[in-house]
Amino acid sequence: MILSEHGEDVWDCTGGVRAREHYHIFVGDLSPEIETQNLRDAFAPFGEISDCRVVRDPQTLKSKGYGFVSFLKKSEAESAITAMNGQWLGSRSIRTNWATRKPPAPKNELNSKPLTFDEVYNQSSPTNCTVYCGGLTAGLTEELMQKTFQPFGTIQEIRVFKDKGYAFIRFSTKESATHAIVAVHNADVNGAPVKCSWGKESGDPNNAQGAQ
User: Fold this and answer.
1) Where is the RRM domain (predicted)?
2) pTM for the complete prediction?
3) Looking at the domain assignment, is residue 168 inside a domain?
4) pLDDT for the residue 171
5) CATH no. for residue 124?
6) Which of 73, 134, 166, 193 has its CA 20 to 30 A from that of 65?
7) Residue 39 falls inside a structural domain
8) How far is the C-alpha of 203 from the C-alpha of 41, rounded, in Å?
9) How far is the C-alpha of 109 from the C-alpha of 166, rounded, in Å?
10) Residue 135 backbone phi and psi in degrees, to 5
């Protein structure tokens, strides 16, 4: 079974089975180091996987930061979406949802379904105060991050990775960090729509996001 990048139904080259008979999950915010096998291993406990892949740029072969996982049973796919959304995989918390055949939303529609405070707050452990902000291809500086995030509370630390286009902002409280994610996710910063989610907590580098 073959699944296109946007989850369209396509023909299986061997058996002629339509892909729509399977249940496809979109997995976003993948860390660059995540391979297809890592993705499969993470979702394997939920049931039989019929297809799984990390989408890569055809020229550079670098991960585009998202992938697809397909299950044979709808109930197993639903369980995977519910359990895995917001969980840590590699160095980022991932987003899971049903894969759709709709084209990407225009910029002016990105905020049509805003995040809620409770939804974001419950995606991470009570002690996590670190925000991941990515998608800035140019002009990323500590000053820009300070200006963007200071309205939401006291900032303890800012770490900028200019060559990778993302930064981590650590607030003094989780409430401040949550407000920042809700407000800045999908907002235009320096002319580019950015993605915000929970960053890895300070301390043990092996901390899982859901650890209590």
Assistant:
1) 23-101, 129-201
2) 0.45
3) yes
4) 96
5) 3.30.70.330
6) 73
7) yes
8) 26
9) 23
10) 100, 5
> What pLDDT, on the 0 to 100 scale, is given for residue 101?
53
Residues 128 and 79 in one domain: no
Distance, in Å, from the CA atom of 128 to the CA atom of 93, rounded to the nearest integer, reads 12
53/73 Cα distance (integer angstroms): 18
Q: How many Cα atoms are found within 13 Å in the side-chain-facing hemisphere of 49? A: 19
The residue to which tokens 């990778």 are assigned: 164
Q: What is the pLDDT of residue 102?
A: 44
What is the residue whose two structure tokens read 């895995």? 84
Profile the chain (212 residues) by mean pLDDT over runs of 10 residues: 43 43 88 94 95 88 90 93 93 88 45 75 92 89 93 93 93 94 88 89 46 31
187 falls within a domain? yes
* Burial (0-12, 13-18, 19+ Cβ within 10 Å), 197: buried
Sheet architecture: strand order including 23-28: 49-56, 63-71, 23-28, 95-98
- Based on the fold, state whether residues 84 and 136 are members of the same structural domain: no
In a domain, 124, yes or no: yes
pLDDT at 95: 92
